[in-house]
């Protein structure tokens, strides 16, 4: 049962209607839209990271799914598992994102992305060794984006979990 239910359709703003016309009536949008100013700001950064970012879609979805795993966000996991498969992750890789890093033969570049998500979750910062591995793969802007991506999806998971946002009807 959601703590804050999705906004009923008759209360949708034109902005929310535009979002829903592109995505469908996802509960993340129809719930957060109850605070229009924050919704607009959240949506701007989320859209930038998800659809206009510099990171490869596969890398982006690996990082998001690792956050969903750590934050036990069923909502993020459900939606981003499908996106991850569309972006080139295999079903085995998606499943492995819920396990210890050593439980799957990640290549060095993928391992660095996942280690960064793990370190940000555990310590609030990326350690020096992981940063060096990331810097061998990504430029400055991509490094900034990766850290902000992980932070954005942690924030979103906090909201989804705390507000009780439920996965849409799966049937």
TrEMBL record:
All residue ranges annotated as the Carboxymuconolactone decarboxylase-like domain in the record: 36-119
Membrane-crossing residue ranges in chain numbering: none
PANTHER family for this protein: 4-CARBOXYMUCONOLACTONE DECARBOXYLASE FAMILY PROTEIN (AFU_ORTHOLOGUE AFUA_6G11590) (PTHR34846), CARBOXYMUCONOLACTONE DECARBOXYLASE-LIKE DOMAIN-CONTAINING PROTEIN (PTHR34846:SF5)
Entry GO MF terms: peroxiredoxin activity
Coiled-coil stretches: none
Name by which UniProt lists this protein: Carboxymuconolactone decarboxylase family protein
């Amino acid at each position: 049962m959601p703590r804050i239910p999705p906004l009923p359709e008759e209360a949708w703003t034109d902005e929310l209607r535009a979002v829903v016309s592109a995505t469908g009536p996802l509960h993340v949008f129809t719930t957060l839209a109850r605070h229009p100013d924050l919704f607009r700001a959240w949506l701007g950064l989320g859209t930038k990271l998800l659809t206009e970012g510099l990171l490869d879609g596969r890398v982006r979805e690996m990082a998001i799914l690792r956050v969903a795993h750590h934050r036990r966000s069923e909502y993020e996991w459900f939606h981003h598992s499908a996106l991850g498969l569309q972006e080139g992750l295999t079903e085995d890789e998606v499943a492995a994102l819920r396990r210890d890093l050593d439980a799957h033969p990640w290549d060095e570049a993928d391992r660095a992305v996942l280690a960064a998500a793990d370190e940000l979750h555990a310590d609030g910062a990326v350690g020096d060794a992981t940063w060096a591995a990331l810097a061998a793969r990504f430029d400055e802007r991509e490094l900034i984006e990766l850290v902000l991506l992980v932070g954005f999806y942690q924030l979103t998971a906090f909201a989804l979990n705390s507000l009780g946002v439920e996965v849409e009807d799966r049937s």
